[in-house]
Description:
By secondary structure, the chain is of the alpha+beta class. Helix content is about 25%, strand content about 25%.
Amino acid sequence: MAILRIRTYPDPILRRRTKPVRAFDLKLRELVRDLFETMYQRNGLGLAANQVGVDAQVCVVDLRDGRLPPYAFINPAITARSREGIVDEEGCLSFPGYFDRVRRSRRVTVRYQDLNGEVREVELVDLAARAVQHELDHLCGVVFVQRMAVPRRLRFRIARLLGRAKFPS
């Protein structure tokens, strides 16, 4: 097991769509184990493979609240989402120290493969739905500031230009 280096914004890998996983092998299991360990060490709720420089459709989510198990999502896709949206604060391990409000669907259904390649489906609500939407965005090359309302996104860009929002790589 290893703690991996988290790529921070504006690292280009964060803006690229990841590739599907084809091999469900020991290397994949090690990646998932390392993603969990890195996420826990940084006190996060989720982490995507491209955030640690790996081009693979893999992410992990663990709310650590005892209500849901930790999830490893391989080749995930949202198959349904509620129309009801919730605006709440989000942060990201690739944007250390930066938090802002983002609108997300309150409920999502995710189809994914587990570590054995078996297709699974899970319905998630509230914080779990928010976390999985955030991580699946990463796998598509979308960072959470792109999901913010336009005035907030502009404020973020201005803060970056003025040097008030720095994210070392």
